[in-house]
Each structure stands twice: as structure tokens, then as C-alpha cells.
Automatic annotation (TrEMBL):
SUPFAM superfamilies: YjgF-like. PANTHER family: 2-IMINOBUTANOATE/2-IMINOPROPANOATE DEAMINASE RIDA, RUTC FAMILY PROTEIN YJGH. InterPro entries: RutC-like_sf (IPR035959), YjgF/YER057c/UK114 (IPR006175), YjgH-like (IPR038743). It comes from the Bacteria. This is RidA family protein.
Length: 139
């Protein structure tokens, strides 16, 4: 007989944005087995609306990502895997990557999968990551 017991998810919320995640019914990040799995982050303003300027939207996506990493005791240096989604990457890739370099840090870099999409709920850029929790922060 299969077990019906499930353990509660160890959710990480960044400061000040919990209502947005509850409204949209997903967790910003979950700690599991020494890793932090972060939901896709977009360049949303505090009210959830998209930042209209493209490069500012990419910066805000990284700022939102970094707030979650920090809430879990991580930095971008702990990130091991990145997935980036871009609307019209042929048009936007170079502009996005100028900003990415401001946050990425030096080599060795995390793994990366880039995906071109047609729709991101009104956004142009989204980033999701998996990070290794530092010793002592791992659960």
C-alpha cells in the first residue's frame, strides 16, 4: 500500500511579496535535500505589474531572484543550474546578456538552458534556478 503521508514543503518567501505568491498559488522557492529550487522570476514591480523597460525588467528579475536567494541564505554564487525564458530572443538576447553579466559573476558559471517563448504573462524575460544550500542552511 502506498503511503499517503506527505511532508510539508519547506517554502522560502522573500520579504514583502508573499501576497503575490499566495494570489497566484505557487511557492517562490522550496528547500529540499540540500538544494533550493526557485520558481521562475520575472521583472515584476511590487504590485506584480511588468517593468516596461526591457533591460530594467531583466535587472528587476535578477533583483527578485536575489531576494529569494538571500532569504534562503544563498547568493548567486550558490546557483548551479539556470533556465532563462525570453520572448523574441533573436531581438532581445544581446540586451539581456549585457544585464546578465552584471549579476552572473566570474567563471566557473552555472549551467544554462535558454528557451525562446511566445508568451510570459506580459513579461519578456524569466529566470529560474537551482542552488546548492550552504552548509548549515541545508535541510
Amino acid at each position: 500500500m502506498a503511503s499517503t503521508h506527505t511532508s510539508p514543503r519547506d517554502v522560502v518567501f522573500p520579504p514583502g511579496r508573499q501576497a503575490l505568491y499566495e494570489k497566484n498559488r505557487y511557492s517562490p522557492a522550496i528547500r529540499s535535500n540540500g538544494f533550493l529550487f526557485v520558481s521562475g522570476q520575472v521583472g515584476s514591480r511590487p504590485d506584480g505589474s511588468p517593468e516596461p523597460d526591457y533591460q530594467a525588467q531583466v535587472r528587476l528579475a535578477f533583483d527578485n531572484l536575489n531576494a529569494i536567494l538571500q532569504a534562503a541564505g544563498c547568493t548567486f554564487g550558490d546557483v548551479i543550474d539556470v533556465t532563462v525564458f525570453m520572448v523574441d530572443p533573436e531581438k532581445h538576447f544581446e540586451a539581456a546578456w549585457e544585464v546578465v553579466g552584471e549579476y552572473w559573476g566570474s567563471a566557473p558559471h552555472p549551467t544554462l538552458t535558454g528557451i525562446g517563448v511566445t508568451w510570459l504573462y506580459g513579461f519578456q524575460f524569466e529566470i529560474k534556478v537551482i542552488a546548492k544550500l550552504p552548509e548549515g542552511a541545508a535541510r
